[in-house]
Every structure is written in structure tokens, then in C-alpha cells.
């Protein structure tokens, strides 16, 4: 039995849920984090001492850190597909997974400021700085996607999952965006996937 703890509006939980759905796994999800609490209980802290979400329990194997969860589930259930077996192809995919946290850091003030902070309390300077920085990062991604349909090459892999979730936020926050045609085309390809639409591309809350 696979269990996952985490609220569905968390970008890092979405990565795990999207992955689970791509793999066609049965999962029991338990709401946790923010208004749901749970994460400060001794039972949860024993599983995940960071008190963050997501956490999974896969038949008694407990794992936290969303990108590690995606790597583990793809290696277990999709070797040679979502988890490339070729060492260099896998490293390529993993690089984009790691880089997704660079993107997340750039977007944090933008997302929190515009989605989770009332207008009178917003730090507009931090939001503007975050918009500028994330546009610089999207430009990097756009350059790479000029030569390949998915971040790690010709096929959808685990590499697309974390950065796909981060870019969904960038696409949906109410900010001005310069056109990035290759990122848009890649995002449209992701949006053709039912698991992405079900778990990721939802209104931001
Ligand atoms: N690097 C960790 C970060 C986890 C993280 O920051 N999770 C956030 C949600 S995106 C969280 O737990 N926030 C506190 C809460 O929901 O109570 C991961 O990717 O799993």
C-alpha cells in the first residue's frame, strides 16, 4: 500500500501526485500541512523530522523530499521510461529536477505575494524582483526547449515533473509574461497529459 501525506495545493505534493498518476499507482492520500495540521504530531515527525509535505510510505518504506519521491517511484515502476536507464540521459533528467528548486526560489515571493497575501500586505519590490528573476530562468528553459520537445530529450521523463509544476505556477500567476514559444509549446504538451491536468494545472490557492 502506497500512502502520501500532503495537501493538494502544495507545489511539492503536486509533483508526487502527478508522478503517482502517470505510473497508474493506487494511493491513499492523507491531507497534511498548513490548515490541515498533522505535520507537527509526533507520529508525523517520526516519519518526517522536517515537518514538511510530501511524505510517502510505500509498504513500510518512508521517504520525504518530493524530487527523491519522484525519482524513487519512477525507478521502481518505470525503469527505461520515466526513469531513464542510460546514465547520461538520467543525469540530464535529474539536472532539471534539481534546477526546479532554483526556479521555485525565484518564484516564491511572486507566488506567495500574489496568491497567499492580501493586497495591502504585499511586498511589491520582492514580487517585481521575483518576476524578473523567473523570466530570466524561463528564458534559459526556452533556449533548451528550442532543440528538444521535453527537458531531457525526445520523450517525457521524470525530469519534466518538478519543473513542470514550477512553471505551471509561473504560467498561472497574474503577472505580465513575455512570450516564450518553446516553453509554451512544452507546457501545452504537458497539458495534454490527463495526470497533469488532474493534479497540477488547477487554480492556484
Ligand atoms: N524540499 C522539500 C520542500 C517541502 C516543502 O517546503 N513543503 C511545503 C509545501 S510546498 C510545506 O510543507 N509547507 C508547510 C506546510 O504545508 O505546512 C520537498 O521538495 O519535499
Which percent range fits the helix content? 40-55%
Pick out the low-confidence regions.
none
Overall pLDDT score: 98
Q: Label the structural class.
A: alpha+beta
Total strands: the figure is 4
Shape, per Cα inertia axes: globular
Estimate the strand proportion: 5-15%
Number of helices: 8
Question: Biggest β-sheet, characterized?
Answer: 4 strands, mixed
Walk across the major sheet and give the strand order.
2-1-3-4
| Spatial gap, N to C terminus | 29 Å
Rg calculated over all Cα atoms: 17 Å
> What ligands does this structure carry?
glutathione
What does this structure look like?
This protein has 205 residues and is of the alpha+beta class. 55% of the residues lie in helices and 7% in strands. The chain is built from eight helices and four strands, in the order E-H-E-H-E-E-H-H-H-H-H-H. It has helices at 11-23, 42-47, 66-77, 87-115, 124-145, 160-172, 181-191, 194-199, and strands at 2-5, 28-30, 55-58, 61-64. It has a four-stranded mixed beta sheet, covered by helices on one side. The longest helix is centred in the middle third of the chain and has 29 residues, at 87-115. The two termini are 29 Å apart. The model has no long low-confidence stretch (mean pLDDT 98). It binds glutathione (GSH).
Amino acid at each position: 500500500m502506497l500512502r502520501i501525506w500532503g495537501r493538494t495545493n502544495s507545489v511539492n505534493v503536486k509533483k508526487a501526485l502527478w508522478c503517482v498518476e502517470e505510473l497508474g499507482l493506487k494511493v491513499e492520500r492523507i491531507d497534511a500541512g498548513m490548515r490541515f495540521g498533522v505535520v507537527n504530531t509526533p507520529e508525523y515527525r517520526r516519519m518526517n523530522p522536517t515537518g514538511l509535505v510530501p511524505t510517502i510510505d510505500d509498504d513500510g518504506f518512508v521517504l520525504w523530499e518530493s524530487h527523491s519521491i519522484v525519482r524513487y517511484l519512477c525507478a521502481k515502476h518505470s525503469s527505461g521510461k520515466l526513469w531513464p536507464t542510460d546514465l547520461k540521459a538520467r543525469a540530464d533528467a535529474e539536472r532539471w529536477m534539481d534546477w526546479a528548486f532554483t526556479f521555485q526560489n525565484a518564484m516564491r515571493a511572486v507566488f506567495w505575494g500574489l496568491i497567499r497575501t492580501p493586497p495591502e500586505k504585499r511586498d511589491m519590490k520582492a514580487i517585481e524582483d521575483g518576476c524578473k528573476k523567473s523570466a530570466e530562468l524561463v528564458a534559459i528553459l526556452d533556449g533548451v526547449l528550442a532543440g528538444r520537445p521535453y527537458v531531457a530529450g525526445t520523450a517525457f521523463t521524470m525530469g519534466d515533473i518538478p519543473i513542470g509544476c514550477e512553471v505551471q505556477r509561473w504560467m498561472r500567476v497574474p503577472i505580465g509574461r513575455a512570450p516564450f514559444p518553446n516553453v509554451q509549446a512544452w507546457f501545452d504538451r504537458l497539458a495534454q497529459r490527463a495526470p497533469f491536468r488532474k493534479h497540477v494545472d488547477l487554480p492556484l490557492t
